[in-house]
Amino acid sequence: MEPIRALRPRSTELLRGDLRDVSLVSLLQLAQVEAISGWLRVEGRGEITLLKGHVGGVACGRLSGVEALRELAFHDRGRFVLARGEPAGDRCGDNVTFALMDAYRLRDEWKRLADAVLRRVDDRPWKPTGGPFDPIVLELDGHRTLAELVDPALGIVTLVIDAALDALRLGLVERVPDAQRRPPPRAVVDSEDFDDLVDRGRALARRGDYDAAESLLRRALARRPDDRAVQQNLRALARRRAAAGPDAEEFR
User: Fold this and answer.
1) 148 with 39, same domain?
2) Does residue 156 contact residue 127 with C-beta atoms inside 8 Å?
3) Are residues 208 and 138 in the same domain?
4) Start and end of every PatA-like N-terminal domain (predicted)?
């Protein structure tokens, strides 16, 4: 989490606190009642420009506009600063009410999805879409929950929720019943060296041999299930496939 940045030039801090105590929706209502022009910044996530109480530009990570506002409203904790000033621009945002209402919908969906363990359907191979769910699909391992696979710091939780719901609806992934969930794999001790598996997997990925690279990296992950470097390499592998577009080689 990055610290809250210094206030913009010619701005006056009005309120500082935590979204656990006052919601983002309440802050926007306050800004509207008081016709505040300035900025509402949420630490480590993003910023909303306010134009006489109305929402202007919104940024949250790589998201902007309605998607960014929805992501900011989805999270119910985080430090914020509300400041008065003279922001650039004079255009108010569109679909503000939709974004806020949809954030509440996604909170309810997340309550049902967060603890779900998903797996790919064998006869329905996943084709990369270029979206944020691609690298997560690669890590559906039968024992980790969706919440364990989604990094909230990336600012794309809401996009992942909708993508996961679509994948479930289309039958591309399915929930693992409690009785079939596998415990986390124990570290395997055999003749294969962990570092060698990782190095060979990276080399194969650079050459474009994604199936062999995934196999080696997953064998490395079985030896050290909590190794963040291997997890990141698997995500990077998924992004490489996604970058090739929907016509890229399917992975299973």
Assistant:
1) no
2) no
3) yes
4) 16-111
Query: Strand 63-64 to strand 79-84: parallel, antiparallel, or no bridges (unpaired)?
Result: unpaired
Query: What's the Cα-to-Cα distance from 108 to each of 102, 111, 114, 161, rounded to whole Å?
Result: 10, 5, 10, 11
User: What is the chain's pLDDT, residue by residue, as a tens digit (252 residues)?
Assistant: 333 444 555 778 999 999 999 999 999 999 999 999 999 999 989 999 999 999 999 999 889 999 999 999 999 889 999 999 988 877 777 789 999 999 999 999 999 999 999 988 887 888 888 888 988 988 887 788 999 888 877 788 999 999 999 999 999 999 988 767 666 555 444 556 778 888 888 888 888 887 788 888 888 887 787 788 888 888 888 877 666 554 444 333
What pTM did the predictor assign?
Answer: 0.66
| Region of residue 180 (phi > 0: left; psi between -120 and 50: alpha; otherwise: beta) | alpha
Tokens (6 digits) for 108: 């309810």
Among 44, 49, 91, residue whose Cα is nearest residue 69: 49
State the total domains in the chain.
2
- Token readout for 178 is 């409690």
Do 122 and 227 fall into the same domain?
yes
CA torsion sign for 212, 213, 218, 221 is positive
Closest CA relative to residue 58, chosen from 103, 20, 21: 103
Assess whether 162 and 223 both reside in one domain.
yes
Return the structure tokens found at 73.
């409203």
Tokens of 82: 């509300």
